[in-house]
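Worked example

This section walks through a single chain of length 117. The input is the sequence exactly as stored; nothing has been trimmed or padded.
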Amino acid sequence: MFWQLMLSISGSVLGTIILSWLYHRRVERLLQQRADHFQDEFIYTRERLVEMERENASLREELSAVQSRYELAEKFHAEQIRSTRESSEQLQLQFETLARKIFDESTGKLEHLARSK
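Given that input, the structure is written out below as C-alpha cells.
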C-alpha cells in the first residue's frame, strides 16, 4: 500500500513535470515566433527608412535645382524690366527730340511766312 501510494505520488509529480516542460516549450516557441516577427519588422522598418532617406535626398536635390532655376528666372525678369524701361526712356527721349524738332521747324516756317507777308 505504501509503495502504491509512492508510485501514485511519483506518477502525479512526473505528470506535472512533463506538462510543465511541454507548456514551457510551447511558451518558448511562441516567444521565438514573436521575436522573429519583431526582427522582421525591424529589418523592414530599417530598409524603409533608408529608402525614405534616399527619396528625401533626391527631393532636396530637385528642390535645389528648382530654386536655382527660379533665381535665374527672377534675374532674367529683372533684366528684362530694366532693359524695357531703358528702351522706353530712350524712345521717349527720341520722341521728345523729334517733336521739338518738328515744332521748331513748323514754328520757323510760320515765322518765315509771317515775315514774308
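What to look for: The mean pLDDT is 90.
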